[in-house]
Amino acid sequence: MLVSCVLLQVAQPAFARNLALQTSSSSQTLDPLEQCANEPQPPFTYGKIRMPSLKVEAILKSSRHRQASDVTIITQCSVDRLYMLEAQCRAWSGLTSVAIYWPLFFFDPTNTDKLSTAIAETKAFHKRMEAEGGCRLDMVVLSEVIKSSDTWSYPYNALRNQALARAGSDVILAIDADFLVVPGLHEKLSGPEAARALLEDLTMRRQVVVLPAFETDAALGIDAGAQIAVKAQTGSKQQLMQMWEARQVIQFAEFYPVGHRSTDYPKFFNSSAPYAVKFKTGYEPYILVSRKAMPWYDERFRGYGWDKVMQLYQLDSMNFQFVVHPNAYVIHRPHIPSSGYNHTFTGEAYTKKHKPTDHLWKMERIAKDMMAELKAGTYPDVGVTTLSHCSASSTPSAAARAVNWW
């Protein structure tokens, strides 16, 4: 049974209709930040750049029990990649807040039917996940009207912000839907004493906890690579090291070495305790972080390139320390390149042989402007997002540290 299900009528094309929310009976009290995210957002521009204009089409919330020590994955995906979310969900017993994207096209008479089908598919997926167990899944379906030629312009950061606004816990794990999480991680993080220690590190000590990211060698292909990824996910750290030495698994995004090199993979394999790493521009690890301390993602970034990089750059500018978890890690599940990737690069995908297009340079210019603003102290405190007027309702209190969270 769903705790809450909010659906929009789709009798007319999405860009022309005047929609009213229909809410099923529920006694659940929404977090003010989530409530704000549910409200229609006015058009917003920053400089000459128009922000994504997302509309809430459906909300599906898990009816399963929640507790204060839960950790929430925040993520996003399109409807055609729900199968990846499913694989992630099955190994994670915590909460997952996911924003699902469905583009609508100007003057397309099939918008209504396709959106209805997408919502129905998402509802069926949610019902199945509720029945199977695994993660406790909160989903929001969001539409956006775009030109048919702009299917590459996936609004990663706007979707991440929607998931962030709906996260139901003080601690979040920011990760993409195509990553597998090691089984049992949530149980280890959410035990009462471990949860208190983790929250204190993320708040009082201003840390973000890095989960080393791995992928399979591209030479394995998608099908064999997916099998190796599952083997790496379910094995021990010692087995992972053996796979690393055999080059079955490698540093994630090896074609972009600065993205994860600071994690120091050799040190990870030889460490039994957390260790601090130095941030370098371009570093974009997957992290555990305090929800209340997490800045909004900058929504000027669309398509592939620089989107996560600048989020991590901002955390560094806020004097957060990056600390690597000694036992937890994530594994990328291989898939065909997205249209966004193909808009950003040409040539052999995910290799050093690919060539950047003009889009990457446009995103880089935005990134350099953002870096300059952060250094000068002129970057907006509320971030560059349509949710800038929304704020968390409270600041988490840190309990006394009892044990190490790892």
Automatic annotation (TrEMBL):
Q: Which InterPro entries match?
A: Nucleotide-diphossugar_trans, Xyl/GlcA_transferase
**GO CC terms for this protein?**
membrane
Task: Please name the GO terms of the biological process aspect recorded for this protein, alphabetically.
Answer: protein O-linked glycosylation via mannose
Q: Which residues form the signal peptide?
A: 1-16
* Gene3D superfamilies, A to Z: Spore Coat Polysaccharide Biosynthesis Protein SpsA, Chain A
Pfam families referenced in this protein's UniProt entry, alphabetically: Glyco_transf_49
Topology within the bilayer: Single-pass type II membrane protein
Coiled-coil segments, which residues? none
Q: What is its main location?
A: membrane
Locations listed in the record: Membrane
Highest rank taxon of the organism: Eukaryota
Q: Has keyword Calcium?
A: no
Q: What does the UniProt keyword field contain?
A: Glycoprotein, Membrane, Signal, Signal-anchor, Transmembrane, Transmembrane helix
User: Transmembrane residues, as ranges?
Assistant: none
Q: State any single GO MF term.
A: xylosyltransferase activity
Supply the name of the protein. Uncharacterized protein
- Species whose genome carries this gene: Apatococcus fuscideae
